[in-house]
Design goal:
mainly alpha, Four Helix Bundle (Hemerythrin (Met), subunit A), 0% strand
């Protein structure tokens, strides 16, 4: 039973394929439905893991990967159909690549690290999800959004994506510098 949250997370990862396909095919109503199911599954696996103490190291790694896969699929798919600017998809993916590359470098050069998403990083993810959902709602014709709302979300996502990427680079660079100096016995 304790593997149910991991199974739900794996199924959420698999939803990336139909989501990307639906976006490319212009089936925005179904893409929105898949995105909502993915979001609900994220809430469900988190609830089950916490409620029944079914957390695992594997689940802790898989959950953010599943979220990133879905967001990347959405940003790429929406950029591909012209609903979001391509530069925004590049920015969102670039930030994640920088964070992962930095984590791997830190782990290999300095030592083990624990994932510590900052408030800014969490805000970035919430705004990215809001922009994707607002765009899908608009495209699916379930709701008409004022143009300024999408523009505001676009500006907010751009600003927080850049700021949180820089925040990660600065914070983890300083941490790496301090740790290596501590290991070498030098002054901080």
């Amino acid at each position: 039973m304790r593997h149910i949250p991991n199974l739900i997370t794996l199924l959420r990862m698999l939803l990336t394929v139909p989501l990307a396909w639906l976006l490319r095919d212009g089936r925005y109503d179904l893409a929105l439905l898949v995105a909502v199911v993915a979001g609900l599954s994220d809430a469900l696996d988190g609830f089950l893991a916490k409620r029944f103490s079914w957390q695992s190291q594997l689940g802790g790694l898989m959950d953010p990967v599943a979220d990133k896969l879905l967001l990347v699929a959405c940003f790429v798919g929406l950029a591909e159909v012209g609903a979001l600017p391509a530069w925004l998809a590049v920015l969102v993916i670039g930030r994640d690549v920088v964070i992962v590359a930095g984590a791997v470098a830190y782990h290999n050069l300095v030592g083990p690290l624990t994932a510590e998403p900052s408030f800014l990083s969490k805000l970035t993810t919430v705004l990215q999800i809001a922009l994707v959902l607002a765009t899908l709602l608009h495209l699916s014709r379930f709701a008409e959004w004022p143009r300024w709302l999408n523009l505001g979300l676009l500006v907010a996502v751009t600003a927080t994506t850049v700021a949180s990427g820089l925040d990660y680079v600065v914070r983890w660079s300083l941490r790496a510098w301090r740790e290596t100096h501590k290991q070498q016995g030098g002054p901080l």
